[in-house]
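DM from R.C. (forwarded with permission)

"hey, sorry to bug you on a friday — could you get me a structure for this? deadline for the figure draft is monday and I only need the backbone to look sensible"
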Amino acid sequence: MAVTEPELDRLTNETVELLQTMIRNECVNDGSDESGFEDRSARLLGSELEGLGLDLERYETGPERSSLVTRIEGTDPDAPSLCLMGHTDVVPVSPDGWDQDPFGGELIDGEVWGRGAVDMLNLTSSMAVAFRHLARTGQRPKGDLIYFAVADEEAGGTNGAKVLLENHWDHLQCDYVLTEFGGIPINDSLLLTTAEKGVAWRRLHVGGTPGHGSMPYQTDNALVTAAEVVRRLSEYNPGARLDKMWEQRVRAMGLGDEFTAQMLDPATLYSALDLLPPELARNSHACCHTTFSPNVIHGGVKTNVIPDEVSIDLDIRTLPGETSADVDEHLRTALGDLHHKVRMEVIIDEPASESATDNPMWDALQGAMLAQYPQKELVPTIVTGATDARYFRDKGAIAYGAGLLSPSVSAPDFLTRFHGHNERIDIESLRMTTRLWFDVMDRFWA
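My reply, with the result:
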């Protein structure tokens, strides 16, 4: 399954062109059932794979919302199977913050610009190109190879991976999954995602007593109480967990002995975090803490009416091992004497998940990634957001976030582009990642 340099040049160009088209499809998922329009890219990818003797299954999970599944059957029914999974939806944008059209998919100075360029249409497109090359050239791997272009990842997968794995596991069943994101170079290391935090979103309903807005003295204003709730949540510190994965990550950062020791010591951790670049500090903090972020607030009916209820949507991300009961206890501690004025509603409650590294896929990734970065060490890490990998882990599959970034993309740059302004990916990263899929399959099924 190895490719020659001329073939890789051609396949990289195909990846660039497919990525540009997927960006232009504007499959924006704002969290509502009516958004996403992933059918545009599911049909696009289906057309790219037509005429190759493949069974293409397109599953609709809502209006203009569908996912694509196809498979190349392996030559050995006892060999392990691999799924290449990429989502097709992207998060909304604020166009005024962009230097280029966020849905233009323009190639500028060796970079493809647009929403989804790093999250994760770069991987979805390169996976499709690698998969198509194998089908087009008649190559059959030893085990089954599945390509899964899935909808609704950016809203938790309810209308995507979650329901499809529940209802169509026979078409998606696999032993290993590669998805977003990994291959981030940082000093002498490459970070590869082996775990992800849990999602424990809560809606906090803050109560009060209605009254006339012209007489606010000593009133029970739910909005005023909500403001204090938000303040307490923003200042709450659940404590750091400095485990083995944290230690590996910190040592991979190449901070020097003294700085590393500070990052590994609970007494000096926070002063050390303050010395890191802001993007890296935020990510590092989230990797060793359960986090609480109040992000949406609703309340009030009219300017002259004191509100009797305000709701706060709280994004909570938990570390491995933490339960729903732990989350409730955190909230009781954070709110203190205001706890009795708040009613909690569960929006999503899914625990953190993790895959072991003592298996053939880890070995294959290590060999393939270090072939392009020979002086680096592969380091397992946790991703602070949620991906569809967790649904496969629930089914017993090993799931990793893979890919490769070129040396021109620093970790802070990459993290800033995730859901941020001016999202873009360089062609060299696309080339390295396209090559990676072939190298991994060669080693995995050797």
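R.C.: lifesaver. The CA atoms of residues 128 and 147 lie 7 Å apart.
me: no worries. The longest strand covers residues 309-318.
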